[in-house]
Amino acid sequence: MRPTHMSAVAPQRSAAVIGAGPAGLLTAIMLSQRGWGVKVYDALPPPPSAEDNDLWSSGERSYQLGLNGRGQRSLREFGVMERVSRYAASVNGRLSFDTKTGAPSESRLIPPGQPGAEKTYVTRVLQRDRLQACLLEEVRERYPNVAVSFQVTCDGVDLSGERPAVTLCPSAETVSSQEELEGCAVPPVGLTAFDLVVGADGVRSAVREALAASPATSTRPDERNTFTGLRRRKRLERALLMVLVGWALLGARFGVKLCAKALLGAG
């Protein structure tokens, strides 16, 4: 059963998610289910439709991603596993190669639930970008509180105000010439304040850089061995949340959920 979400309720709080990969889109879904209005920004173009089997079978779209038991449970909790299952293949065996001769040998896995089975689940596999396409379709069909914009770059995060503000600019792919970039002729989309900013934009994260540079986000413990920024709910809700999830969100269902529970005070 899919979890209910609060799309009919006017959102009282706003969130910006920087990065529209699987981690960013799942974070947006989670926040929307809790009544937040979410805007997602990504510097790259959108992925192709997940339904285009000819395109995805080319083998050159992106690397394969394996979903283990915890990852599948996480996707079910978010209500998206049904759609992902349409395009994911099941792993039913192993193909090994002899180190000396290179000869292949195939072995079949014992199905879960039968004596001698190694796992209690069947690993599912699909391309990383196809997973992104599945989640994007889920967002567009079921979550009107989430708006996703592609080819928009986060140029910085301002933490000096009461709420974090994000500077957004068109990505380099949308600019006609390098001279325009060097001449600063790219008009910013705007400096917009949000109640929450989530960084899911990879290693070179503008959100992480802003968080590291801000003296207001210290994580030094106080005398009672608690983090100074966690004592008041109001301060915590305004804090900048940096989610360095990578694929931990898919491999361990607690990644973003624990951050959200701490942030929102949810049980």
TrEMBL record:
UniProt-listed InterPro entries: FAD-bd, FAD/NAD-bd_sf
Residue stretches spanning the membrane: 239-256
UniProt KW keywords: FAD, Flavoprotein, Membrane, Monooxygenase, NADP, Oxidoreductase, Transmembrane, Transmembrane helix
Gene3D superfamilies on file: FAD/NAD(P)-binding domain
Lineage top rank: taxon: Eukaryota
Cofactor: FAD
GO biological process, one term: kynurenine metabolic process
GO MF entries: FAD binding; kynurenine 3-monooxygenase activity
One family name in Pfam for this protein: FAD_binding_3
Domain FAD-binding residues, every copy: 15-214
PANTHER family: KYNURENINE 3-MONOOXYGENASE (PTHR46028)
Protein name (record): FAD-binding domain-containing protein
